[in-house]
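Action item from last meeting closed. Structure (545 res):
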C-alpha cells in the first residue's frame, strides 16, 4: 500500500458518521459513491495527467482512506489518486459505455482510497474524465471545485503552483464540537423535532402501494427545453427569492408537489432536499462533505394557487436553511420517500469549449421518487427522474409520470394563479380514449339494496371466500355473522330517532374490518360514512361537526 507520508488524521463529522453507519449497515450497496463523467472536447492526455497530479498534491483528501479501530473510524492518509489512461479510440461507443457502467458499480475499497480517476480517450483530441469519489470526502459542490482547479492547472501548465484546495484541518471539527454544546444546536434540534413530529402517509402513486425495491431504481432523463426554461425564469421574478436559480428550484418543487397532490390525494407531502451548507467564503472553497439533507413539510391549503404554493415553498426552504446545520435523521429511519435535488452547479470551459457532465446513478435506493434538476445548460435545464421499480416497473408508467409532470408544469406556468386542485393532467386524446373504453352495454341495476344482495349470496354460497387479506380469509357466512352482530350493536346505540337517519362513521383503512362496518351500517338501516384515517385531524373533525 502506497501510504502518504503525511501523518494527519481526522475524526468524522456527525454527517460523515451518518454516512459511514449507513455503509456499515449495508456494505454491498453503492449509495455513498459519487461517479461522474466529464466529456472534454479538447484534451492533451499527458498535460491532463500532470495537472491532476498537481491537484492531488494540493488536496490531501484525494490521498485519503478510512481506518477503523476501537476508537472509531477516522480519515487518514491512504493511496494516492492517479489517472488511469485508457485508449478506446479504436473501440466502438458501446465498449466505452460498458466500461463506465461496469466501473461505476465497483465499490471503492475505503481502507485503501476514497477516490479514483480515469481518462478515456475516444477521439483525436477529445476524451472523457471518469471520476469517482466517496461521499465521505466530497459532495456535488466539491466536484465542481475539483474540476475548476483541474482546468486552471491544465490551462496554466507547465506554470502554476501546486497549491490546491483548502487542506484538511481540525478547525471544522472543533467548530462542530462547539456547535454540539451550543444553544443554537438545542434550538435546531427542537425545530426539527417539532417539524417532523407529524407523520405523513406513504405516497400512493396511481393507486400502487407496493413495497419499495432496494435495488431497482430506474432513471429517466428529459430536457425542459428553452421555452419552458425561459417561462420559468420569467415567473421566478414573482417569488420572494427573486429571479435566479433559487426561485427556479422553488417553482419546480412546487410543480412536483402540485402533481403529487393531484395523483395521490395526499395534501401533506414530505420532501428530502439537500442544502449546500457552506455559509462562509472559506467553506465555499473547501473540498469535503458539507452538504446537509433537510426535510420540507408542505401541506396544500384549500384553494391555493400554484404561485402561492411556490411562495410558501420558498419560505419553508429558507426556514429549513436556517436550521440545516443539524444532522436530521439516521440511516435506519427515513423521514421522507421523495427527494428533490437542484444541482446549482456551472462548470468552467476548457480552452473556450463547454464541459458536459454525466452523473452515473447507482440504482441503489429505497425512495419512491427522486427528481434531480441540473443547470449545466442554463437555457435548457435537465430533469432526471429516479423511479423505484416496484412502483414504476412498466415503461409506460414511467413515461406517464414524466408526461404528467411536464403537462402540469406547462399549465401551471401559463396559469400560475389557478388553484392547484383545478390542475388538469389528462390530455384530450387520452380523455377520449378513457371515455371510449368505459362505454359498453348498459346493464340494469338490481332492484335490491346492497345488504340484501349480500344476504342472498351468503345464503347461496355460505362457505365461499368473501374477503382475503394477509391475515386470512372470511367466508360469506362469517362475514354475514360479524356484520349482523355489529348491526345489532349499532341499533342498540342509535339515538332515539328514526333508524332511517342513522349515520355510521367509519374511521378505518381499507381492510376486512371496513367491509364488516359497511355491511353493518346498511343492515342497521343506516348510512355508511367513510373517514380516511390518513386525513388531517382537523379535516375529520370538520366532517363530523
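Sequence:
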Amino acid at each position: 500500500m502506497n501510504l502518504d507520508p503525511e501523518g494527519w488524521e481526522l475524526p468524522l463529522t456527525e454527517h460523515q458518521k451518518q454516512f459511514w453507519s449507513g455503509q456499515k449497515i449495508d456494505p454491498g450497496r453503492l449509495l455513498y459513491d459519487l461517479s461522474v463523467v466529464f466529456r472534454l472536447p479538447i484534451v492533451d492526455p499527458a498535460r491532463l495527467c500532470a495537472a491532476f497530479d498537481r491537484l492531488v498534491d494540493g488536496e490531501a483528501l484525494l490521498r485519503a482512506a478510512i481506518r477503523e479501530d476501537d476508537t472509531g473510524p477516522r480519515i487518514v492518509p491512504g493511496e494516492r489518486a492517479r489517472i488511469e489512461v485508457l485508449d478506446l479510440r479504436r473501440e466502438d461507443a458501446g465498449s466505452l459505455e460498458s466500461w463506465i457502467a461496469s466501473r461505476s458499480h465497483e465499490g471503492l475499497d475505503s481502507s485503501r482510497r476514497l477516490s479514483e480517476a480515469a481518462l478515456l480517450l475516444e477521439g483525436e483530441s477529445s476524451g472523457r474524465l471518469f471520476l469517482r469519489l466517496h461521499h465521505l470526502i466530497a459532495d456535488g459542490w466539491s466536484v465542481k471545485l475539483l474540476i475548476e482547479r483541474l482546468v486552471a492547472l491544465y490551462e496554466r501548465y507547465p506554470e502554476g503552483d501546486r497549491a490546491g484546495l483548502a487542506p484538511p484541518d481540525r478547525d471544522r471539527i472543533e467548530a462542530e464540537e462547539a456547535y454540539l454544546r451550543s444553544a443554537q444546536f438545542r434550538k435546531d434540534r427542537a425545530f426539527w423535532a417539532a417539524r417532523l413530529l407529524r407523520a405523513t402517509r406513504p405516497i400512493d402513486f396511481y393507486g400502487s402501494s407496493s413495497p419499495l425495491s432496494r435495488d431497482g431504481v430506474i432513471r429517466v432523463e428529459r430536457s425542459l427545453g428553452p421555452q419552458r426554461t425561459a417561462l420559468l425564469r420569467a415567473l421566478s421574478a414573482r417569488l420572494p427569492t427573486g429571479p435566479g436559480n433559487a426561485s427556479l428550484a422553488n417553482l419546480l418543487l412546487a410543480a412536483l408537489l402540485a402533481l403529487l397532490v393531484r395523483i395521490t390525494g395526499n395534501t401533506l407531502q414530505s420532501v428530502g432536499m439537500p442544502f449546500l451548507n457552506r455559509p462562509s467564503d472559506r467553506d465555499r472553497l473547501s473540498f469535503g462533505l458539507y452538504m446537509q439533507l433537510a426535510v420540507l413539510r408542505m401541506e396544500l391549503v384549500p384553494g391555493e394557487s400554484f404561485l402561492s404554493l411556490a411562495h410558501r415553498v420558498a419560505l419553508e426552504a429558507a426556514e429549513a436553511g436556517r436550521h440545516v446545520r443539524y444532522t436530521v435523521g439516521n440511516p435506519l429511519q427515513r423521514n421522507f420517500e421523495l427527494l428533490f435535488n437542484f444541482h446549482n452547479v456551472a462548470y468552467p470551459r476548457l480552452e473556450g469549449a463547454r464541459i458536459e457532465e454525466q452523473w452515473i446513478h447507482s440504482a441503489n435506493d429505497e425512495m419512491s421518487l427522486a427528481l434531480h434538476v441540473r443547470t449545466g445548460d442554463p437555457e435548457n435545464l435537465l430533469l432526471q427522474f429516479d423511479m423505484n421499480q416496484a412502483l414504476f416497473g412498466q415503461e409506460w408508467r414511467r413515461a406517464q409520470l414524466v408526461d404528467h409532470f411536464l403537462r402540469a408544469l406547462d399549465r401551471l406556468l401559463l396559469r400560475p394563479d389557478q388553484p392547484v386542485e383545478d390542475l388538469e393532467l389528462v390530455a384530450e386524446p387520452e380523455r377520449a380514449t378513457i371515455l371510449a373504453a368505459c362505454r359498453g352495454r348498459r346493464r340494469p341495476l338490481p332492484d335490491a339494496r346492497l345488504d340484501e344482495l349480500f344476504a342472498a349470496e351468503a345464503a347461496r354460497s355460505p362457505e365461499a371466500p368473501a374477503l382475503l387479506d394477509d391475515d386470512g380469509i372470511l367466508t360469506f357466512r362469517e362475514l354475514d355473522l360479524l356484520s349482523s352482530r355489529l348491526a345489532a350493536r349499532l341499533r342498540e346505540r342509535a339515538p332515539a330517532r328514526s333508524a332511517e337517519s342513522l349515520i355510521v362513521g367509519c374511521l378505518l383503512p381499507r381492510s376486512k374490518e371496513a367491509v364488516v362496518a359497511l355491511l353493518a351500517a346498511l343492515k342497521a338501516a343506516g348510512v355508511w360514512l367513510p373517514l380516511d384515517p390518513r386525513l388531517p385531524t382537523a379535516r375529520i373533525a370538520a366532517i363530523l361537526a
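Note appended to the action item: The two ends are 73 Å apart (CA to CA).
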